[in-house]
């Protein structure tokens, strides 16, 4: 909208209504409409690139990274664009694109599968997407059979370990009542894990919901006795509300058919307790360990000597055979009581024999019977001893981890043999070690003490992103310190996607981690990675100020975060962000050039408001933060350097709303000729010779940068000025009150004419910019007020001050102050520079 169109609209609807219209964010119903609002913006460019026969995938990914939040939503809704990306992108490219677009998890998985089968995607990415889903979105995924089953087959993680399952048990039990999710849970988590989850989350309500969904009968039929779930089976038994359900649970637990005539509701619990006491089973590791320590046999041989009928006798004998019957061994292990099972896990010889005899499936079965009595590190080391790491079922490994605490997992990571097994385990990632990651103290100890853990994380960029997101909301400050102590901080930071390729969740997480620490070199590394800078630090040309302080870097991050990605992260011109000397302290200053932005400031005055250094009381920039707007001003120059907004012949030279600037260079005679014509100087001096003499003297004064134009006449006359027949003094006396004189005198740089403008001549204001050229601009642009005095120094500063003012109020209301000053400028800026970033998606 031009300034004239804005005035017409305001007169038609009233100024108050006009203000509301102009301040409302633009809303688009679809991606096509949003692209039309900003024809040169990243969304329009992305649509154009996807329409090409040969798509530049790298360019598409950069453009995706530049989109605003509303545009990301609209792209996700656009089936044509999403299909085009699915057709063009490989799995790696789609992995990077999918988190740049705002989609629910079912659509993320759907479009990824369209590009490539989900089994081609990194497990860390699949985990991250599922963990980020809320209950409503996850419920949609479960309800879409085709996509849910693709996820179930491709993702090796445990669905019952997803954060939302614990956070929303009401939804989780409802999902377990569906065939789709129950099948997924039984297959990936394992029946024992389902039993454990039900027992831990209101077993009565969970059983009722699963029964209402028609899934309880199948679950009860699949349960078999395993030491790891004996306490939970009893909880389910107590919570069961029908005799038949209790009977099935009893038979599963004790491996026997129950006789008739039992009143399961009245007497079932007593019968259960009686059977447990008889079998000597049902206790956890701590209780069994304490019982053994209290007395009785202390090893397998002593246990055999005390009970010749113990299953240990037959097991030891079978393992001594040349050809071991593995099935028989597993049956005998299942017959052990808790004491016998614990003593078996402590017998190095027998454990080694079993490791040599069992394959992955058999090790899985053995761990179902013995794992609850073993430390996690010992269980994993035993798996590695058997050379079956990676072949033990994911359900068994997950249950071992779930039953462990942070200390148990920390011990694994500090034990190379156990860690090797853990890394090979199906579905296990460093970011799925929930007990460890929730305990910030243990987590940080592992990070700084065991380099192998970060090496594991760094082996996969998806795990780096995953860990970053997890720690960003759980004691990020202590993780910052631990990461620094580890010595691997640079590798961790540079493993993240750089600049605009960094997904929005990573950007938010990195910011939280950045703000939590004080180590300047590490913070600079993060800043450079986030904003795609080659260097941040002391300026080399204007040295002496030293490096940035941690607090200043924090403020800079939040200022830079207000800017569009294309102006910083994708600004090829900008390479460095530096600190220069600041002779105007405490007022900040900056300089842009040499592919760098340099800012000078007083760290004690970072919060100072603008109170008159560059503004008059009514200016829109009055009261804004001086440091922020100084930095944004220089970043505006950097944007101009990259995109040539103020190029000769461009919009700032042609659009009256933008000033219609003219560059007169140092062509003084031409400037005087134009001013003479526009002020009708010839009317005062109709004699051609006199007119030329006056213009010549004024040109002399202008070229000498004199604020007193009489000096030009004095220079022409020399010592004879005002003496005798001198012609120059009379000419001066005739011209000194003429408007051309005030225009020339008040336009000199020494009078800071951008602060105190000379009178307009024929609707234009002329002045020396002090940048080695004279400029003029449309006086009407300034007539309605201004952003600051400095704004009108030249067209580049006009753009930079507009840029600073526009983004000073971002992200809450970008451009609010510019809108309040000049809607024509605001509309041009929003369309061309911000390029659709603030566009909102229609509901």
Molecular structure report:
This protein has 843 residues and is mainly alpha-helical. Among the domains are: 169-282, no CATH class; 285-426, no CATH class; 430-532, no CATH class; 667-771, no CATH class. The protein has 53 helices and 9 strands. A 4-stranded mixed beta sheet has the order 2-3-5-4. It has a 3-stranded antiparallel beta sheet with strand order 6-8-7. Strands 1-9 form a two-stranded parallel ribbon. The longest helix has 18 residues, at 626-643. The chain starts with a helix and ends with a strand. Residues 1-23 have low confidence and may be disordered.
Which structural category fits the helices and strands?
A: mainly alpha
Strand content: under 5%
Q: Segments where pLDDT lies below 50 for 5+ residues?
A: 1-23
End-to-end distance = 25 Å
Global morphology = elongated
Which strand order spans the largest sheet, edge to edge or round the barrel? 2-3-5-4
Number of separate helices: 53
Gyration radius from CA atoms, angstroms: 38 Å
Topology of helices and strands:
Elements: H1 3-13, H2 15-23, E1 27-28, H3 31-37, H4 42-51, H5 57-66, H6 69-77, H7 79-88, H8 91-98, H9 105-115, H10 123-132, H11 135-143, H12 145-154, H13 163-167, H14 169-176, H15 179-189, H16 191-200, H17 203-212, H18 216-222, H19 230-239, H20 243-254, H21 264-279, H22 285-294, H23 300-306, H24 311-319, H25 326-334, H26 338-345, H27 348-357, H28 360-370, H29 376-385, H30 394-402, H31 406-413, H32 416-424, H33 434-438, H34 440-449, H35 451-458, H36 461-471, H37 476-486, H38 489-494, H39 504-516, H40 520-531, E2 535-538, H41 550-560, E3 576-579, E4 589-593, E5 596-600, H42 626-643, H43 651-654, E6 662-665, H44 668-678, H45 681-684, H46 688-703, H47 710-717, H48 728-735, H49 739-746, E7 764-768, E8 774-778, H50 779-783, H51 795-808, H52 816-821, H53 823-834, E9 840-841
Helix pairs in contact: 1-2, 3-4, 4-5, 7-9, 8-9, 9-12, 10-36, 14-17, 15-16, 16-19, 19-20, 20-21, 24-25, 25-28, 29-31, 29-32, 31-34, 34-37, 36-39, 37-39, 39-40, 40-41, 42-51, 44-46, 46-47, 47-48
């Amino acid at each position: 909208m031009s300034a004239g169109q804005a005035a017409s609209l305001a007169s038609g609807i009233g100024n108050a209504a006009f203000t509301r219209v102009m301040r409302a964010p633009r809303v688009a119903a679809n991606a096509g409409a949003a692209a039309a609002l900003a024809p040169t913006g990243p969304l329009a460019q992305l649509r154009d690139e996807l329409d090409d026969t040969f798509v530049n995938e790298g360019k598409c990914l950069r453009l995706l990274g530049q989109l605003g939040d509303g545009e990301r939503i609209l792209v996700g809704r656009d089936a044509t664009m999403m299909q085009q990306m699915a057709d063009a992108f490989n799995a790696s490219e789609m992995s990077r694109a999918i988190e740049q677009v705002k989609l629910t998890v079912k659509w993320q998985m759907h479009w990824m599968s369209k590009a490539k089968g989900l089994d081609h995607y990194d497990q860390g990415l699949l985990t991250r997407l599922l963990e980020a889903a809320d209950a409503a979105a996850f419920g949609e995924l479960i309800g879409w059979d085709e996509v849910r089953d693709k996820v179930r087959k491709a993702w090796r993680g445990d669905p019952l370990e997803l954060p939302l399952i614990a956070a929303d048990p009401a939804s989780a039990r409802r999902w377990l009542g569906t065939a789709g999710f129950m099948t997924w849970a039984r297959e990936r988590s394992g029946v024992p894990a389902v039993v454990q989850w039900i027992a831990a989350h209101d077993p009565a309500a969970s059983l009722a919901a699963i029964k209402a969904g028609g899934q309880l009968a199948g679950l009860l039929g699949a349960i078999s006795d395993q030491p790891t779930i004996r306490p939970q089976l009893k909880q389910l038994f107590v919570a069961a509300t029908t005799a038949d359900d209790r009977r099935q649970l009893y038979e599963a637990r004790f491996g026997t058919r129950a006789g008739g005539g039992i009143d399961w509701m009245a007497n079932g619990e007593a019968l259960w307790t009686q059977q447990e006491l008889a079998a000597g089973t049902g206790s956890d590791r701590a209780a069994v360990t304490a019982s053994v320590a209290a007395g009785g046999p202390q090893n397998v041989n002593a246990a055999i000597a005390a009970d010749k009928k113990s299953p240990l006798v037959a097991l030891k004998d079978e393992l001594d055979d040349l050809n071991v019957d593995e099935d028989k061994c597993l049956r005998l292990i299942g017959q052990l009581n808790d004491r016998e099972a614990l003593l078996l896990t402590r017998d190095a010889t027998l454990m080694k024999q079993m490791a040599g005899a069992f394959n992955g499936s058999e090790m899985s079965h053995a761990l179902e019977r013995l794992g609850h009595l073993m430390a996690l590190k010992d269980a994993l080391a035993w798996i590695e001893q058997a050379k079956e790491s990676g072949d033990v079922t994911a359900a068994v490994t997950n249950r071992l981890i779930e039953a462990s605490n942070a200390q148990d997992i920390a011990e694994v990571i500090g034990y190379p043999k156990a860690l090797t097994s853990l890394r090979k385990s199906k579905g296990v990632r460093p970011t799925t070690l929930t007990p460890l990651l929730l305990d910030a103290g243990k987590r940080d100890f592992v990070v700084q003490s065991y380099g192998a853990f970060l090496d594991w994380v760094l082996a996969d960029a998806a795990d780096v992103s995953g860990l970053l997101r997890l720690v960003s909301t759980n004691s990020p400050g202590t993780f910052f310190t631990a990461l620094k102590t580890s010595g691997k901080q640079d590798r961790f930071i540079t493993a993240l996607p750089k600049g605009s390729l960094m997904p929005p969740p990573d950007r938010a997480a990195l910011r939280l981690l950045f703000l939590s620490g004080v180590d300047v070199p590490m913070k600079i590394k993060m800043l450079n990675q986030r904003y795609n800078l080659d260097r941040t630090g002391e300026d080399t040309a204007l040295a002496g100020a030293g490096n940035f302080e941690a607090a200043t870097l924090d403020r800079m991050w939040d200022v830079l975060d207000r800017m569009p990605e294309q102006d910083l992260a994708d600004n090829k011109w900008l390479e460095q962000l530096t600190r220069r000397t600041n002779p105007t302290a405490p007022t900040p200053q900056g300089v842009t050039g040499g592919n760098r932005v340099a800012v000078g400031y007083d760290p004690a005055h970072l919060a100072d408001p603008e109170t008159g250094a560059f503004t008059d009381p009514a200016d829109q920039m009055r009261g804004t933060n001086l440091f922020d707007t100084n930095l944004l001003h220089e970043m505006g120059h950097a944007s101009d350097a990259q995109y040539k907004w103020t190029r000769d012949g461009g919009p700032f030279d042609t659009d009256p709303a933008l000033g219609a600037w003219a560059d007169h260079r140092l062509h003084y005679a031409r400037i005087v000729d134009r001013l003479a014509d526009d002020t009708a100087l010839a009317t005062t001096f109709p004699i051609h010779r006199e007119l030329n003499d006056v213009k010549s003297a004024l040109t002399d004064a202008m070229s000498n940068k004199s604020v007193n134009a009489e000096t030009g006449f004095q220079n022409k006359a020399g010592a004879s000025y005002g003496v005798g027949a001198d012609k120059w003094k009379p000419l001066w006396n005739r011209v000194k009150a003429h408007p051309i004189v005030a225009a020339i005198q008040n336009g000199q740089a020494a009078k800071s004419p951008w602060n105190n403008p000379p009178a307009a001549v024929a609707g234009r204001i002329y002045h020396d910019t002090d940048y080695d050229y004279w400029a003029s601009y449309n006086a009407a642009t300034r007539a309605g007020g201004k952003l600051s005095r400095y704004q009108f120094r030249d067209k580049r500063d006009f753009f930079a001050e507009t840029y600073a003012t526009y983004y000073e109020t971002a992200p809450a209301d970008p451009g609010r102050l510019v809108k309040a000053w000049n809607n024509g400028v605001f509309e041009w800026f929003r369309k061309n520079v911000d390029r659709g970033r603030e566009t909102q998606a229609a509901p």
